[in-house]
Design brief:
Length: 922
C-alpha cells in the first residue's frame, strides 16, 4: 500500500496557520475612515456665481477624501429643486446643503429634511423658517451699508443715486436695499431718486434702465445688486453717452474673465463689493457637523470694497489660489491611483489567505462529516421505526375522534332544530303583546322586553350552530355576485354606529379606495364582518376606538379588510384556541357563546379567503380578512342575493355589562333630541318627559349645545332663550347658518311671552316658540309633528333631486347644499372612481360631515345618492338608441356593463335591455 508523504512545510501546519493569522491581523489594522455622503441642491442665478461656489467647495473637499459629494442643479426652478431634494432623501445622504433661488417655496421641504434628523446647511439665501442646522452666507445688510458709505465717499457726500434691485421678494435684494437705504440716510446730500427691478440677469436691466435714465438725467451713481446688473447698467449708459458721467458700483467681486474683479480692472465699473459664494465655509461647517465638532449656527461672511486701489492685488490672489487648486487636484488624482493599487493588492492578499484557511478547514470538515454521517444514518433508521408506529397510533386516534366529533355535531344539530319550535312559540306571543298592548305597566313591559331579547339571543345561537353544521358537512353553498365591497361593509358598520356612540366608542372606516368591485356572497360575508365587529364592540372599553380599514393587495391578488380595536387584547394562553368552537377564553370579561370567531373563520375559508389576527395585551387586537379578487366560476351567481337578517340587534348580541344605557334601550324612537337648558331642574324635567319616546342628550349652555349639535347631528333641538354667554336666539341663528345643522328643527322655550319677542324668535329661525309654563303633552306632540314634517321634507327633496327635473333652487341653506351636491355629482358622472372623499373635497368638507348631512337631509347614504343619480340618468339615455348599453354604463361611470345591469335591475326590477325594449316598442 503506497504511503502518503507530506512536505515538511505542511507538517509545520501550526506555524503556517499562525503566519496566515498574523497576515490577516496586520491587514485589518488599518481601519478606514467613516464615509460621508453630502448632497448639494443649488438653484441660484448666475453661471459665474455657481462656478465660484462649486470651485470653493471642491477646493475644501480636497482635504476630505472620505466624503462623497453629490450635486443636483435645479436650473432656477424651485419645484425641480424640491423634487431633487426628495430624490436625495430616497438615495440616502448624511447632510444636505441647500442654495435656493426663492426662499418660501423651498422652506417646507427643508423643514421636512431637518425633522427627519438629517443636518441641513443653508447657503447664501435663508429660508423663512428657523428649522435648519447652520446658515452660511454673506451679510446682505452689511453689503448694502458698505455700498452706501462707499458711494457717499466717491461723490463727496452729495449726489443723485439710482439703485438696480435684484428679483422682487428675494432675501438678498430686500436686505441689500434695506442696508443701502439705512446707511444713505446718514448723508443728507445723497438722494436715492429712482429704482429699477430686475431678475438678477443683465437683459432685464437693458430693457428697463434706459427709460429711467432718460427721466433722471441728474443721476451721478448707479448701485447694482450684482456685477451682471452693473455690466448691463454700463452698457445702457454707454448707449446714452453717459458712461463717463455715471459711476457704477456692483456686488459679488468674482474672479474670471467676466467677473466683477475684471470689470473693475477694465474700468467698466468703478468698484464691486466682495460677496463670497461661501463654498469653502459651507463644506467646513458641514464637516464640523458630521464629525460632531463645535460649530456656529449662524456663519455670516464679511465683505470689502474692490476698486482701482486694490483690484490688481485681488486678481493676483485669485489667480494664485486657482493655480494652487489645480495642483491639489492633480495630486489628489495621483493619490487616488495609489490608493486603488493598494486596495487591489490588499484584496488579492485577503483572497489568498482565505483560500488557504478554507482548504485546511475543508479537510477537517470532510473527515468529521464522514463520521457524523454514519452516526446519523443509524439514528434515522431507529427514528423511522418509531415514526411508523406513532403514525399508525395517530390514525387510530384520529378515526376515533372523528366518530366522536360526528356524534357530538349530530347531537347539537338535532338539538338546535328542536329548539326552533319552542322559540318561535315564545317570540310570537311576546312580540304581539309588546306591539298591541300599550296599556301594559312599565314593569311588565320591561319583563317582556327581557324575555324577547333573550329569546332572540337563543335564536341567534341556534342559527350559528346550524351554520356550523352546514359548513362542516359542506352544505353551505357560496353564491357570489358582483358588488361594491366598500358600500357593503359601510352598511354593516351603520348598524353598530348607535351602540358604539352610546358607549363613547369611536367607529372609523378607512377604505383605501372609494369603491372595490368584487365577486362575493353577501350572506356569507355579512355574518363574517358582523361577528368581527360584534366581537370588537364587546371587548372595547368606553372611550375606545374601532377602526375598519380596507385595501387592495395587488401582489396577492386579494382584498384585505382589517377590524382593529383598542380593547384589552388576547392573552398568550388564549391565542392558540381563539378560533376553536365553544372556546370562551380564560380572561374574557364578556362571556359569549364561543362560536362567533369560529363561525367567521369557517365562513371566510368557505369564501376562499383567510382570517388571521394579531394582538398585544393591553393594546387591542386586529382581525384581518383576506378575500381573493377572483373566485372560481362555479361560485359565481348572476342573481343578487340580499343579506340575511340575523334576527337580532347589536345591543342584543352584547353581554349585559356592555349594553347601552337602559333609557336608550327602551326608547320608542331612533330620533335624537338635544336639550339646551341652563336650569338643572327644567333640564331634568324635559329629559324625563322626552326619554321614554326619544333618545336625549343635554347641554347646559349655548356653546356646548352648538358643539353637540355639530358633532352628533340630532333630529331636533329644544333650546331655552335665556342662556349664559350665548343666548338661545344666537344659538338658533348659528344653527341655521351652519350647513351641517341648518336642517334641524328648533323649538325655543322662554318665559318671555310678548308677541314681539315671539316674532323675534321665529325670525331667528326657530320652528316653534313655546312660553313657560308649557304643557308637556303639547311639547311632546309638537316634537312628533316636527319630526314627521322633517321626514316628509326628506321625501320631497328625494323626489326633486332627479336629473329628469330642474335642479333645486338654492332658496334655503339645505336646498343650496343639495343643489351644489347634485351639480358636483352630475359633473362627474363619467368618472368610475368618483367616491365620497372626492365629493366632500369638492364641497370643502370632511367625509364624515358630508355623510351626516346627507343622511339627515335625505335619509340615505352618499354612495346610494350618487348611484341613484346615475341610474336615473341611465333611464333617460336608454330611451334612445344612440348609445349601446355598454356605452351607457361607461358614460355614467360604472366599472363594467355587468355591474351596471345588476344595479339597474336591483333598482327598477328590469334589466337595461328589457327597459329599452319595453319603452322603445311603445
Amino acid at each position: 500500500m503506497p504511503t502518503l508523504i507530506l512536505p515538511s512545510w505542511l507538517k509545520r501546519s501550526n506555524w503556517w496557520l499562525c503566519a496566515v493569522l498574523l497576515v490577516l491581523m496586520s491587514c485589518s489594522r488599518s481601519t478606514p475612515k467613516r464615509q460621508y455622503t453630502i448632497g448639494f441642491s443649488q438653484c441660484t442665478n448666475g453661471d459665474a456665481w455657481r462656478q465660484a461656489m462649486l470651485a470653493g467647495m471642491q477646493k475644501e473637499l480636497s482635504f476630505y477624501p472620505e466624503v462623497r459629494f453629490r450635486m443636483k442643479d435645479a436650473k432656477y426652478s424651485s419645484a425641480l429643486q424640491e423634487q431633487q431634494i426628495r430624490e436625495f432623501l430616497k438615495e440616502g445622504i448624511d447632510l444636505l446643503i441647500v442654495s435656493a433661488n426663492e426662499t418660501e417655496p423651498v422652506t417646507p421641504i427643508v423643514e421636512e429634511v431637518y425633522n427627519r434628523g438629517i443636518p441641513v446647511v443653508i447657503l447664501d439665501r435663508r429660508t423663512t423658517s428657523k428649522l435648519y442646522t447652520a446658515y452660511v452666507g454673506g451679510n446682505n445688510l452689511e453689503v448694502g451699508q458698505t455700498a452706501a458709505n462707499y458711494a457717499a465717499g466717491l461723490l463727496g457726500e452729495r449726489g443723485q443715486v439710482l439703485e438696480v434691485l435684484g428679483a422682487p421678494g428675494s432675501s438678498p435684494a430686500i436686505d441689500r436695499h434695506r442696508g443701502f437705504a439705512q446707511a444713505l440716510a446718514a448723508y443728507p446730500g445723497m438722494q436715492l431718486v429712482a429704482q429699477v427691478n430686475s431678475n438678477w440677469e443683465r437683459p432685464s436691466v437693458l430693457a428697463r434702465l434706459p427709460n429711467v435714465l432718460r427721466q433722471h438725467p441728474e443721476i451721478d451713481l448707479i448701485f447694482a445688486h450684482n456685477d451682471r446688473l452693473a455690466l448691463g447698467a454700463y452698457q445702457v449708459c454707454k448707449q446714452l453717452g453717459r458712461e463717463r458721467q455715471v459711476r457704477i458700483v456692483g456686488v459679488d467681486g468674482l474672479p474670471g474673465p467676466h467677473g466683477g474683479i475684471q470689470l473693475v480692472q477694465d474700468g467698466i465699473i468703478n468698484s464691486t463689493l466682495l460677496y463670497s459664494p461661501g463654498g469653502e465655509e459651507a463644506i467646513r461647517t458641514a464637516m464640523r457637523i458630521l464629525q460632531r465638532q463645535p460649530f456656529e449656527k449662524e456663519n455670516p461672511l464679511s465683505t470689502m470694497v474692490i476698486d482701482s486701489t486694490n483690484v490688481l492685488t485681488m486678481k493676483l490672489q485669485t489667480e494664485k489660489l486657482s493655480s494652487q487648486q489645480q495642483d491639489i487636484q492633480r495630486q489628489q488624482r495621483l493619490l487616488q491611483q495609489q490608493l486603488a493599487t493598494y486596495a487591489s493588492q490588499q484584496t488579492v492578499l485577503y483572497v489568498l489567505a482565505a483560500a488557504l484557511l478554507g482548504a485546511a478547514g475543508l479537510g477537517i470538515l470532510v473527515w468529521r462529516a464522514f463520521r457524523a454521517n454514519r452516526r446519523i444514518t443509524r439514528r434515522l433508521a431507529l427514528q423511522n421505526e418509531e415514526i411508523r408506529a406513532q403514525r399508525n397510533q395517530i390514525q387510530e386516534f384520529a378515526e376515533q375522534a372523528r366518530v366522536e366529533t360526528e356524534a357530538k355535531l349530530r347531537f347539537f344539530t338535532n338539538f338546535s332544530h328542536e329548539l326552533r319550535t319552542p322559540l318561535t312559540l315564545i317570540l310570537g306571543p311576546v312580540e304581539e303583546m309588546l306591539t298591541s298592548g300599550p296599556q301594559l305597566p312599565a314593569a311588565q313591559r320591561h319583563d317582556l322586553s327581557l324575555v324577547r331579547r333573550n329569546a332572540q339571543r337563543l335564536l341567534q345561537l341556534v342559527n350559528q350552530l346550524m351554520d356550523f353544521r352546514k359548513i362542516d358537512v359542506g352544505k353551505m353553498p357560496v353564491r357570489a355576485t358582483e358588488g361594491n365591497l366598500v358600500a357593503f361593509v359601510r352598511e354593516i358598520m351603520d348598524v353598530f354606529e348607535r351602540p358604539a356612540r352610546q358607549r363613547g366608542i369611536r367607529l372609523r372606516f378607512l377604505p383605501a379606495e372609494p369603491a372595490l368591485p368584487l365577486w362575493f356572497d353577501a350572506n356569507v360575508l355579512d355574518k363574517v364582518f358582523f361577528n368581527l365587529l360584534s366581537n370588537a364592540l364587546k371587548f372595547t372599553p368606553e372611550g375606545g376606538q374601532i377602526t375598519v380599514s380596507m385595501q387592495r393587495v395587488p401582489a396577492e391578488k386579494a382584498v384585505r379588510v382589517s377590524v382593529e380595536d383598542t380593547g384589552r387584547g388576547i392573552s398568550e394562553q388564549d391565542r392558540a384556541h381563539i378560533f376553536e368552537w365553544f372556546y370562551q377564553g380564560q380572561q374574557s370579561v364578556a362571556k359569549g357563546s364561543g362560536m362567533g370567531l369560529a363561525l367567521a373563520l369557517g365562513l371566510t375559508r368557505l369564501h376562499q379567503g383567510t382570517l388571521s389576527f394579531t394582538s398585544q395585551p393591553g393594546r387591542g387586537s386586529t382581525f384581518v380578512v383576506t378575500l381573493p379578487l377572483e373566485l372560481p366560476q362555479e361560485l359565481k351567481s348572476m342573481e343578487a342575493i340580499a343579506p340575511v337578517n340575523l334576527g337580532f340587534s347589536v345591543e342584543e348580541d352584547l353581554p349585559p355589562a356592555l349594553r347601552p344605557e337602559p333609557e336608550a334601550a327602551v326608547s320608542g324612537s331612533e330620533a335624537l333630541v338635544l336639550v339646551i337648558e341652563d336650569n338643572p331642574e327644567v333640564n331634568a324635567f324635559l329629559v324625563q318627559k322626552l326619554r321614554p319616546h326619544f333618545q336625549v342628550s343635554t347641554a347646559f349652555d349655548g356653546a356646548r349645545g352648538l358643539e353637540l349639535a355639530a358633532d352628533s347631528i340630532p333630529d331636533l333641538i329644544i333650546c331655552d332663550v335665556m342662556l349664559p354667554e350665548l343666548s338661545g336666539l344666537e344659538v338658533v341663528a348659528r344653527l341655521k347658518s351652519d350647513w351641517r345643522t341648518s336642517h334641524i328643527p328648533v323649538v325655543l322655550l322662554t318665559a318671555r311671552g310678548a308677541s314681539e319677542q315671539q316674532v323675534e324668535g321665529v325670525q331667528a329661525g326657530a320652528d316653534l316658540y313655546l312660553t313657560k309654563p308649557f304643557n308637556p303633552t303639547f311639547l311632546l306632540e309638537s316634537v312628533r309633528t316636527l319630526l314627521s314634517n322633517r321626514e316628509k321634507q326628506r321625501e320631497h327633496f328625494r323626489r326633486e333631486l332627479s336629473v329628469q327635473t330642474a335642479t333645486v333652487a338654492p332658496q334655503r341653506v339645505d336646498q343650496k347644499f343639495l343643489a351644489d351636491l347634485t351639480a358636483i355629482v352630475e359633473a362627474n358622472l363619467s368618472r368610475s372612481e368618483l367616491n365620497v372623499e372626492d365629493v366632500a373635497r369638492s364641497l370643502g368638507i370632511s367625509r364624515v360631515q358630508l355623510y351626516r348631512k346627507v343622511k339627515a337631509v335625505l335619509g340615505t347614504g352618499v354612495t346610494d345618492f350618487i348611484q341613484g343619480i346615475r341610474l336615473t340618468k341611465a333611464r333617460q339615455l336608454l330611451l334612445s338608441d344612440e348609445l349601446t348599453i355598454a356605452e351607457v354604463a361607461y358614460q355614467l361611470g360604472f366599472s363594467s356593463p355587468s355591474y351596471f345591469s345588476t344595479s339597474f335591475k336591483a333598482r327598477y326590477q328590469v334589466s337595461p335591455s328589457e327597459f329599452r325594449a319595453l319603452h322603445t316598442t311603445a
